[in-house]
Amino acid sequence: xxxxxxxxxxxxxxxxxxxxxxxxxxxxxxxxxxxxxxxxxxxxxxxxxxxxxxxxxxxxxxxxxxxxxxxxxxxxxxxxxxxxxxxxxxxxxxxxxxxxxxxxxxxxxxxxxxxxxxxxxxxxxxxxxxxxxxxxxxxxxxxxxxxxxxxxxxxxxxxxxxxxxxxxxxxxxxxxxxxxxxxxxxxxxxxxxxxxxx
Length: 198
What we know:
Elements: E1 15-17, E2 22-24, E3 28-33, H1 44-52, E4 57-67, E5 72-80, E6 84-85, E7 88-89, E8 104-110, E9 112-118, E10 124-130, E11 134-137, E12 142-147, E13 153-160, H2 168-173, E14 177-182, E15 185-190, H3 192-197
Antiparallel strand pairs: 1-2, 3-4, 4-5, 5-13, 6-7, 8-11, 8-13, 9-10, 9-12, 14-15
């Protein structure tokens, strides 16, 4: 499904199937399982057990880059499955951008979730992220989407390819809060990894 990224100054169209969460053509298509996010989940024993039981897909990523002589825009689409590791909901790996001047826009087209945003210096926000909601993520905020619903959560994103992705700060310390199910409802709890790194 991966296609070669080519430069063109002509208008370009792609097909986006919002109901299925698919993009064609896409220059990137990745599938991430629990084993790919093992370090992100707080309950490592539960994560190991889920991997041993079949290592289910947590989410898929598609994106298509639009390269011209002057721009490097991209549109992405992510599909997060419904599920949990222990009592922690399925989520994206989470990243921030390498370039300090780069923002991103997320738009939820299906499902129910939370968009976690953390500047890693004391400002943490958890925004409702349900069908129809668009969020502008400012530069230098790590961001992660958590699926708290019973079906797939599908969202599209717009960003510059030159922004780059940094995963290591998130892997090391995580977000300020984790999202877990308590009494059948999603709850934000302090991230135990943060207390270990301070």
